[in-house]
Amino acid sequence: MSGFGSLNIIMQAKPHLHGKRGADLLHDPLLNKGTAFTATERDTLGLRGLLPPRIITQDQQALRVLETVRNKNTDLERYIYLISLQERNENLFYRVVMDNVAEMMPLIYTPTVGLACQRYALIFRRPRGLFISLHDRGHIKQILQNWPHADVRMIVVTDGERILGLGDLGANGMGIPVGKLSLYTACAGVAPDFCLPVMLDAGTNNQELLEGPHYLGLLQKRERGPAYDELVDEFVQAVQEIFPRACIQFEDFGNSNAFRLLHKYRDQVCTFNDDIQGTAGVALAGILSALRLTGGKMSEQRILFLGAGEAGIGIGELVVTALQAHGVDEAAARRQCWFVDSKGLVVADRTDLSSHKLPFAHQHAGAATLLAAVETIKPTMLIGVSGMTGAFDEKIVRTMGQLNQRPVIFALSNPTSKAECTAEQAYTWTEGRAVFASGSPFPDFTMDGRVFKPGQGNNSYIFPGVGLGLIVSGAQRVTDEMFFVAAKVLAGIVTEQDLAVGRVYPDLQRIREVSSAIARAVAEVAFERGLTSMLRPENLDERVQALMYDPAYVEYV
Predict the structure, then answer these.
(1) Which of 8, 148, 538, 548 is disulfide-compatible with 189, CB 3.0–4.6 A?
(2) What is the rounded distance in angstroms from the CA atom of residue 320 to the CA atom of residue 303?
(3) Residues 480, 481, 483, 488: what is their CA dihedral angle, to the nearest 10 degrees?
């Protein structure tokens, strides 16, 4: 197995305590079991007297955690409690999250993580991950060596410029890498010690943060010049030396940097941008599932996007790939994807377009508003990735309903407060005919006796499985084909029962099944395309399962 995963497998069988005993053992979140330490372990490891006398099983601990979480008054309080649990007992944290993923995911990630980032300085308890600032240039390799785990496989890094739909939160954005990596573990079984969150602090243009008394990041405007590129480049190169088997996931960078950094590094190192490629994968999967409800053909779709940033263009590019796979040539495929940005419809005669929009700038009359674009383009699908609350108003949604028997309306902006419309609005304004999905969860909605269970187009359906596949295969590069196959796998797991209640994604409780299937498909791409120096294992399924972390406690003695 070329060493890949061997440490993780050994750790699950009999964790190495590295000489830790007593209070040191209780203070290590990867090793601590709290009141679940057995009598023998307490005697042998110097724990007697440091814990209450009653021995409690992990299942009993999990029930206590659930009761505590449910008794909190707000989701932010629940987030703080859960993160505190993660900081003292990771196995118990992941046991609770994995067994209750639909309930826990909105608390540890979107939408609650957005508020947690906004309040980051006030709720800061214990640092997680590495903070690397402009002042650290020339020393990044040493900083990476300060991380306590030597075998890092997944790094999620942000510079905090575009946190969800909330904008520039600077160093407060560290909550995003921490949350993303929690999902790698909870959804795909990537071992916690394989994961490293990183904040690249290049300043912030958020004046409220700079003027406030509590902000913990650099007190300066965001760097835009060569110093920024030098910071990123030194980080990327240092990772290659210190953690040579790690994949770097760029997360929540601003548009001005996200596309160019992806293009700069994607053919040099193992890296991807989840906002561009992961979002594309989950959106394409929803599109493919939606066609099973509408009865339409992929080759005949006209898709209108509100938002022409990382998410929108990323989806558009993957949709073009899908259309080509259905026999449409590239030029025609691009003409089936239309974009509206802050200045109106993206068309060829506009002179204000950034380079990433140009491949989708078609010869067509302009349209100043989204409604005008809907009326002239007559899309079969409307996808929102704009961060503009309520942008899909009643007139727009009803027009989509007039144009299509089953209008596909995806309001994918996060967090929930930024969604282009709610599930209730989409269903009500189309007399229950809409095929709806959102980026953050909406509750079930009952209309005329029918219960709708809106699907959540969350990237957690895609990126954890992709990451696991990269680890399984030892892939040295990440390709768009990997996200294409991931989308097809995800869509294929959607059942008729899911579709019957209007859900175009599988039940979140099946997320580990989804992730393992995606990991196998991604690993196959890596082996088939020669993107790894590893030999394909005889039984790829066994290898995937062997590498998936299990949070169950094991005996130390």
Answers:
(1) 548
(2) 11
(3) 150
Q: What value, to the nearest 5°, has the Cα angle with vertex 130 and ends 129 and 134?
A: 150
Boundaries of every domain in the chain = 59-269, 278-557
The 247-250 sheet, strands edge to edge: 130-133, 195-201, 154-158, 247-250, 271-273
- Compute the residue count for the chain: 557
Instruction: Give the separation between CA 258 and CA 254, rounded to whole angstroms.
Output: 6
Q: Which fold has domain 278-557?
A: Rossmann fold (3.40.50)
59-269 is classed in which CATH architecture?
Answer: 3-Layer(aba) Sandwich (3.40)
The packing angle between helices 370-377 and 394-403, to 10°, is 0
303: nearest Cα among 333, 281, 274, 330: 333
Domains 59-269 and 278-557 share a fold: yes
CA–CA gap between residue 343 and residue 51 (Å, rounded): 62
Instruction: Give the residue numbers annotated as catalytic, written as ranges.
Output: 109, 180
User: Average pLDDT per run of 10 along the chain, which is 557 residues long?
Assistant: 38 67 96 97 97 98 98 97 97 98 93 94 91 98 97 98 93 97 97 97 97 96 96 98 98 94 97 97 98 97 97 97 96 98 96 95 97 98 96 98 98 92 98 96 94 94 98 97 98 97 95 98 98 96 96 94
Question: What one-character-per-residue DSSP string does 172-216 give?
Answer: GGGHHHHHHHHHHHHHH---GGGEEEEEEE-----HHHHHSS---
From CA 304, how far away is CA 373, in angstroms rounded?
8
For residue 28, give both structure tokens.
């290590």
